[in-house]
Amino acid sequence: MATAESTETAGPADTADTGSDQDYFEEFPVSARLVRLNFLVAFVALGIGGLFGMLQALHRTDTLRILSSPDYYTLLTGHGVLLALVFTTFFIAGLFTWGVSDSLGRELPGDWISWSWWTMMTVGTVMATVAILGGLIDQIPMQADVLFTFYVPLKAHPVFYVGVVLLLVGSWVAGFDWFRTFWAWRKDNRGERIPLRTFMVLITMLMWYLSTMGVAVEVLIFVLPWSLGIFEQIDPLLTRSLFWFFGHPVVYFWLMPAYLVWYTILPKLSGGRLFSDGLARIVFVLFLLLSTPVGFHHQYIDPGIAEGFKFVAMTNTMFLLLPSFLTAFTVVASMEHGARQRGGSGYLSWLRSLPWDRPAFTACALAGLLFAAGGFSGMVNAGMNLNYVVHNTLWVPGHFHLTVGTAAALTFMGISYWLLPQLTGKKLRGRALAIIQPYLWFLGMTVLSNAMHRGGLMGLPRRTAEPEWNLVEGDFASGVGALSEVQLQIAVGGVLLFTGVVLFLLVMLLTWTGRQAPSIGVDRTIPPALSGPENSPRILDNYRLWFGIAVVLVVIAYGIPLGDMVADGLLNPGSPPISP
Amino acid sequence: MEIHRFEKIWTVASILLLIGFIASIVYGAVGPGVAMVDEEGGTVDVETVRQGNYDQLSNFGEPTPVAQQVSGDEYRANIVAQRFAFNPGTSQPLQVPADSTVTLYLTSPDVLHGFELVGTNVNTMVIPGQVTKVTVEFEDPGTYNIVCAEYCGSAHHLMEGTVEVLPQSEFEEVSS
Amino acid sequence: MSADTDDGIVREIGHDEFDPVGTASLIVVYFLILVVMWVFMYFVEFLGRGPTIIG
């Protein structure tokens, strides 16, 4: 048991007290293998997707062009799919496998079901990636230049859609793997509170099951058959709405694992303890309830949807800010606790007592800081009529590079520095690179996203291959002279970030190919929270109740508007396929 | 459940902040009268639009390079957004008079497009099968640039146009 | 290397002894930034732009 004062808190630590001096990979070799395989695919996707991102930044700003402008959209599709769907899903699957097994003190079954989900996800990823690369490689007779959102009636090769489906179904089976491990644990541990990390995994997956219903229906019932010629036409508004049913909650699928790291590991990395276990549970329950009935905030300026439903989506979205506001307080308070235990004092000078030379800590802390900025641009996006200023401008990527691109991605990279030694039995190598990489990311992202936000306000559109100088000049333009400065910052930011990706992958490679060490130099124990689960209502663990309420809220938000869209026919008004 | 008093205060402050955001949005709707795009434009058959048989449609008409007067200073204009031009807008500008209220009707015969006047709050989606109906007040004369803000294919970055707000006298000349 | 296994703890602080005054300070600053930025975005950037969709 760790050094924490177990006389104060009656509850168990989140790490199951196995009394083990073993490292994670020794205690749970089967789960560790599964985690490693997921991380492997995640890191390969990160490398390719990151490279595409840099090429886009250089092309779009007319700094360096090695491809044509139509090819830009192939790069953009690859960047979005490989980073926002593949890197994220695989990393999260690995993180959750670790979190469930470590907090329950139990291996995943590791039978054919466990291997089937990784296989399905990987096969799907390869299919979708090959289809996308067909846009750049003539020898592949496929294309998928439809971007990460694949709005119809632009049509990709059916192989792309099949790949997406396999990735999705694989993730569902992964969730089942974690649930069945939990159910087996509960048989032997009746009446106990669910260990926090497992609780977070289960709640996240319940949110995932509910939200992926939208994209599953969209692709399986409409887009895939239409792409195979089974239907001649498809309703663009309906399928777009089904996509966004999923498209907003997916960002919480990315964020909640980052929050899992910030709540359960970051306090320990800071030298402290989680400020409140109960508040962490409340936050996750709020995400389950509110993540899905908000999708229309991505469609504020769509025709075909009445303003009342957009208003409901807006108020739900504004309340969805609350769990993130609570997280800011609880996580920073936990870090402050660590800083003071390390000898810090004062109102602000305690910040200097935090372990800024510890790569996992620094990455998470800087990710949280940039997330605070990204949260603000999200508030603007949510602001219904205010959305007119920013919709489809470069402001939007400015926002999400701070959120998925930093809060999630930088946290994932950072915690890998702490996890990989525990997964492989090898010490972290290239530590000096690991220490500077988060700072480099922070610099690159500050430059990039600041420029994107300003460029968006000046009128630069997103998802566009050319700088569009002429459009943002003219009678009603603002900040004309600043445009070239914005373009330069985007190019510089893109290069800095890709350098950050390369440094991270280099550290991973050096560590992974190193020799096993007698001591991996990582302490895996997580001290108990300052206010443990025994201080929070048991009803929080009643995940069936929360799931039921979440379903009701979704029916209220989506029932009538989707009903209106299908009232004139499932495929009406319909469009035939169009090749990009 | 025991929650630290600082966190309780922060929770209340956060909720007040969210309510403040919602209140400013409601103010924008009630005061300056900002309205969201909605379903008023109705739906159309995509093939009919593609063939250009506008006379068969009750809620959309021929593309109008010069806005048509409805009454007083109220005008209307029909715009088709297609791969990769606005009609009107690209090969010829859309012309509207200064100090007018113009209702724009937009649709697409092919894929999703965006219609955005750079530097303004005129920003909307154009979806095949739907008619986008938006009303805008134009005051001072000048030229606005139209950008297609939604990816529509390999030449998306070339799709742009202009809206010219003409002084009354000039507008009267072009509408005759 | 000691930096990863040594949490650098020099004193233990229990639940009842800890008031997150540093967090409170930071979050007040954040709150004020949000208010100022929102007012700027809504009333200057948004309502200050010309033509707007009013119907």
Describe the structure.
The complex is a heterotrimer of chains A (580), B (176) and C (55). By secondary structure, chain A is mainly α. Chain A has helices spanning 24-27, 29-60, 69-104, 112-133, 158-188, 196-227, 236-247, 249-264, 266-269, 277-290, 307-341, 359-382, 387-390, 395-424, 431-458, 482-512, 543-567. Chain A has one domain (24-567): Cytochrome C Oxidase, Chain A, CATH 1.20.210. Chain A is 66% helix and 0% strand. Chain B has two domains: 1-34; 39-175, Cupredoxins -  blue copper proteins (Immunoglobulin-like), CATH 2.60.40. Chain B has helices at residues 5-30, 46-51, 168-175, and strands spanning 68-71, 74-82, 85-87, 94-97, 100-107, 113-117, 123-126, 132-138, 142-147, 160-166. The model of chain B has no long low-confidence stretch (mean pLDDT 96). Chain C is built from one helix and no strands.
Concise overview:
Chain A is built from 17 helices and no strands. Chain A has 580 residues and is mainly alpha-helical. In chain B, a hairpin with a 5-residue loop joins strand 6 (113-117) and strand 7 (123-126).
Query: What's the average pLDDT of chain C?
Result: 91
Number of helices of chain A: 17
Q: Which spans of chain A of ≥5 residues are poorly predicted at pLDDT below 50?
A: 1-13, 15-19
Of all chain pairs, the largest interface belongs to:
A-B, 79 and 68 residues
Work out the helix count of chain C.
1
Give the assembly state of these chains. heterotrimer
Shape of chain C: elongated
CATH architecture assignment of chain A: Up-down Bundle
Structural class of chain C: mainly alpha
**What percent of residues of chain C are in strands?**
under 5%
CATH superfamily of chain A: Cytochrome c oxidase-like, subunit I domain
- Name the helicity range of chain C: 40-55%
